Amino acid sequence: MSSNAAISLESMQQAEQDLPDEPRARPIPRVNIQAFCEDQNTASVIQKASEDRRLAKAHVTVQMGGVESAVTFYRDASTPNLIIIESLLNRAEMLSDLERLAEVCDSGTKVIAVGQVNDVLLYRELLRRGVSEYVVAPTSVAQMIESIASIYGDPSTGPVGQTVAFVGTKGGAGSSTVCHNTAFSIASVLESDVVIADMDLPFGTAGLDFNQDPLQGIADALSAPERLDEVLLDRLLSRCSEHLSLFAAPIALDKAYDVDTNACETVLDIVRENVPWIAIDVPHVWTAWAKDMVLKADHVVMTAMPDLASLRNTKNLADQLKSARPNDRPPILVLNQVGVPKRPEIPVKDFGQAIELEPRVVIEFDAQLFGTAANNGQMIEEVSEKAKAADAFRSLANILTDRIESKSEGSSLLAPLIERLKLSKVLG
Predict the structure, then answer these.
(1) Would you place residue 153 in the very low, low, confident or very high pLDDT band (cuts 50, 70, 90)?
(2) What percent of the chain has pLDDT over 90?
(3) Are 60 and 37 contacting, i.e. CB atoms less than 8 angstroms apart?
(4) Among residues 309, 278, 79, 269, which one has the least CA distance to residue 186?
(5) For 145, left (φ over 0), alpha (ψ -120 to 50), or beta?
(6) Are 264 and 258 in contact (CB under 8 A)?
(7) Which residues contact 68 (CB under 8 A, 6 or more apart)?
(8) What is the predicted pLDDT for the residue at 25?
(9) What is the pLDDT of residue 405?
(10) Are 362 and 392 in contact (CB under 8 A)?
């Protein structure tokens, strides 16, 4: 085996395992996946991967026995969409065993091979023989999810759009304002296409905040999700700027809005295929569809106020998210309306310590600024580009899009000043 080849494959595998935080993979479609493992650790990794939100639609079964068990099993059964097969053998024996497996596989079945041999030449030979992916053990949950997702993702379409669920931990916390202004920053400052999905169908404020009054919007898509395509989506969206569009709520009370969870998922999947960012303005409810939307989002931004009710609710929601999304980054905590005159508040540091989650963005109370923006149908940055709140929303946009190192808002706001002080010290 060439030493250069070994180093090359090891570097590729290690780079995948060292990816920060969560896997950046698109959701897996409704496929049947069966794994045959030799090592219990590999079986455990695949089992944990099967519980991830990205594999929610897939049916995954894991059993021991490797190639021998797989060959015996498929002599009398049809093969699934994807087989994950582990082998502890050397290069020649692995290739021989996979040839035996190929003899009992149905046409169209895809295969991921997991092995101990760290060899680029083996990797290339496996691909030449029709194996979709080769993973060197020990593997990680993130790497396994990425490997499965890569098989069902079309590289020519580019990365699937990412969803950000903005949820308030208490009514009136200002989650919608945070959602709209952050989406505006991603669109205007970072020049990336964004769609705001206003899911507060009877009382949503996105139309008001952007001075829009569209006749059609997200309710039309949810009522007939099977009809939604790129053409209809473009007609239902209300364009706010070159890079920002609004999926507006109907704001009508003549009927009840019982949102179907599957309809939500279908609509968002179609939007994800057309734009890189979807900011979901989740109303302050905890229905089946709202819970599903928050738990399955790529990122979750929680907006809280520095009071006891917010503290309790934020702790409950953060614990729920950490438990249900073990392979994702922790939710981003925004502490809003800090410093209201004469109002007793929980200090920012104490708030973070109590819920074991540091506030990443802290937005100071500014009644004049936020009131002016709301009444004029403008974003904070349009009213005052140099305002602290505008800087806070830009920082949150940067954190979500990985444009800066993830740090607390206090650090990010002071970063330019700190850099100037460091520079002056060096020059001095």
Answers:
(1) low
(2) 51
(3) no
(4) 278
(5) alpha
(6) no
(7) 97
(8) 64
(9) 42
(10) yes
Average pLDDT over residues 295-310: 95
Tens of pLDDT, residue by residue over 167-213, are 999 999 999 999 999 999 999 988 889 999 999 999 999 999 999 98
What is 159-412's CATH superfamily?
P-loop containing nucleotide triphosphate hydrolases (3.40.50.300)
Tokens 């200090």 map to which residue?
347
d(CA 21, CA 23): 7
Rg (CA), the chain: 25
Q: Where are the domains of the chain?
A: 4-8+25-156, 159-412
State the Cα–Cα distance between residues 183 and 164, nearest whole angstrom.
10
Q: What is the DSSP letter of 202?
A: T
pLDDT attached to residue 24: 59
Q: Which two tokens stand for residue 133?
A: 């992916």
Distances (CA, A) of 181 to 189, 209, 246, 338, 410: 11, 9, 13, 17, 19
268 touches 278 (CB < 8 A): yes
Transcribe 10-55 into DSSP letters.
Answer: HHHHHHHHT--SS---PPP-S-EEEEEESSHHHHHHHHHHHTSGGG
Encode pLDDT of 356-413 as tens digits: 999 999 999 999 999 999 999 999 999 999 999 999 999 999 999 887 544 434 444 4
- Asked if residue 13 has pLDDT above 60, the reply is no
Domains 4-8+25-156 and 159-412 in one fold: yes
Contact 307, 365 (CB under 8 A): no
What one-character DSSP code corresponds to residue 190? S
Domain 4-8+25-156 homologous superfamily, CATH? Response regulator (3.40.50.2300)
Secondary structure (DSSP) of 312-343: HHHHHHHHHHHHH-TTSPPPEEEEEEET-TT-
Instruction: Please say whether the beta carbons of 331 and 341 come within 8 A.
Output: no
HSE-CB of 124 using CA atoms within 13 angstroms? 7
pLDDT tens by residue, 95-136: 888 888 888 888 788 899 998 888 888 888 888 888 888 888
SS3 216: coil
High-pLDDT (> 70) share of the chain, %: 86
